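batch job 7 of whatever, protein = Formate dehydrogenase subunit alpha
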Amino acid sequence: VVEIGTPERSVITTCAYCGVGCSFKAEMRGDELVRMVPHKDGKANRGHSCVKGRFAYGYATHKERILNPMIRDKVTDPWKEVSWEEAMTFAANRMKGLIDKHGRQSVGVITSSRCTNEETYLVQKLTRAVFQNNNTDTCARVCHSPTGYGLGQTYGTSAGTQDFDSVEESDVIMVIGANPSAAHPVFASRMKKRLRKGAKLIVIDPRRTETVEAPHIKAAHHLALRPGTNVAVVTALAHVIVTEGLMDEAFIRERCDWDEFQDYADFVSEERHSPEATEMLTGVPAQTLREAARLYAKGGNGAIYYGLGVTEHSQGSTTVIGIANLAMLTGNIGRPGVGVNPLRGQNNVQGSCDMGSFPHELPGYRHVKLDEVRNLFEETWGVQIDNEPGLRIPNMLDAAVEGTFKGLYCQGEDILQSDPDTKHVAAGLAAMECVIVHDLFLNETANYAHVFFPGSSFLEKDGTFTNAERRINRVRKVMAPKNGYADWEVTQMFAQAMGANWNYAHPSQIMDEIAMLTPSFAGVSYDALEEKNSIQWPCNDKAPDGTPMMHIDGFVRGKGKFIRTEYVATDEKTGPRFPLLLTTGRILSQYNVGAQTRRTHNVVWHDQDVLEIHPHDAENRGIRDGDYVRLASRSGETTLRATITDKVSPGVVYTTFHHPDTQANVVTTDFSDWATNCPEYKVTAVQVSPSNGP
Ligand code: SF4
């Protein structure tokens, strides 16, 4: 029992973990945070929370936090603590030297979906206005970039269609490649409440997750597909809907391009897309596919929620398109209880994409080639903006290895641990002449850094996060930054050291600039956020109170666009050396690479990643429950303990990636989504064998 005493004051702010965006009261006694209490007026959580948001904030005051800037000439030198002024001068001189010697395209930035909208906006502005290139990318590259592409192509906007309240009117809920019970727990509780009232659940996932078998709830259908066959499954569902005449033809005629629909209908009707023809490939019984398609099409309001099990594939964008097609086919768009909803993994994935962090888009998803958009930013910023898209994260690393990319400012992201093919990431970082890491802790990437800017936690700054339902929530400063400056101030100091004339006194001024330049944010300001509690974009003259639900009378792009979804097998093949397929996921108590949750006294604890393996596969290899095993792929190998379970099918193994000593990404491949380069984390051919331990 911990005695917390009586709080003296409280500040309402937003959880910094997942994309649900729960609102909390941070209760303080003096300078000490004594408790996080879920806020009953939070529109996303309505007084609920999960174990991470409620208890896992201790990392903000953890002893391993770095509070002083550090520099070093070479990465083999020891770090030297310096003043902020000296660190800024050192970093700016190095970056300016690289630009002078190798050209402006030789440097770039990586931003984080952990940071606020205002901080992310400033980092992409630094790239475009100060470095004068478009080499800006975000960690959304490795999670939801296919969502941006797929929903942008079909519906015209790169975001989910509904608010979370919508699930309370769903009759059929299809969850694809997501395990909200572990990764989005507060949304999962709202979903389960609806399921307990009789809504039906369809889960498409290789693994029998906690979502498939929640207490008192059993999915009507679990489609335990073979990893890598999402497109074949989604197209087979469409085949059933079209060939059995289950479409909503009136909706399609009114809201979608009819010629494109006919082309798509011809395509999915081909016999090769039937459940019977795809059963062998996908591993899903034909009858289950047929029953799931019928339930989704005719079971009432059908809503789809999906996660990284959809996007992190070589055909991630194609699956997102296939999901969008399913909703259009059945008219499940534009009213409560329906829609297509990406469950965002990190607190501000939506916001970091909205803020122009991609190398081809300015804030508001507008392409850098559009003259009228570039002109607007050029007039406001007083600089010329490059009209060619810049480098994505994998392209930056490739270019570094080739010797043309020399300098990186990496804010709030540990790419060595979180990006695929760790050896290649390390080679790219090692080849650079200036790596600036801006983070709370000396992370794995910092091993290759020349400059370390200490970061600030969400408790130490003002700003906004945008959650998975496009809701812009206020983040409020609870305590003074322990390192002296909020992250937006650090970026501003760096820009000033590089010669920029930036003078923002508060993040509200940055939001005012965002609103001025971004039509979907035109009505957003800190005053409006105070008044309305939170705002879902678009918010402008047409929608002054924001937009809980999109595409009500028409799609943002005009007519909804059906696109063919041809299944193409991944190049990551199993064979005699690597006969099993590895897929990955998260557990409830940990968050991503664990930098925050591992440094917190969490009430539920898992101190290691484990490998789930089916009893048959374990027996064949002489592996017993709890044994150490060697997990090897074409990329590398690691050692971890095995858990024998039939949650995974024969031929499939599963692990998490929360602990740096496991380094699951040493094993994952470097194949990626054809449209966006999102890594194929979810399919790796592996072998598992007994081991004596690490
Ligand atoms: Fe935080 Fe997500 Fe948990 Fe809510 S559900 S408390 S946003 S981790």
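notes: The pocket of iron/sulfur cluster is lined by residues 15, 17-18, 20-22, 45, 49-50, 52-53, 184-186 (CB under 6 Å).
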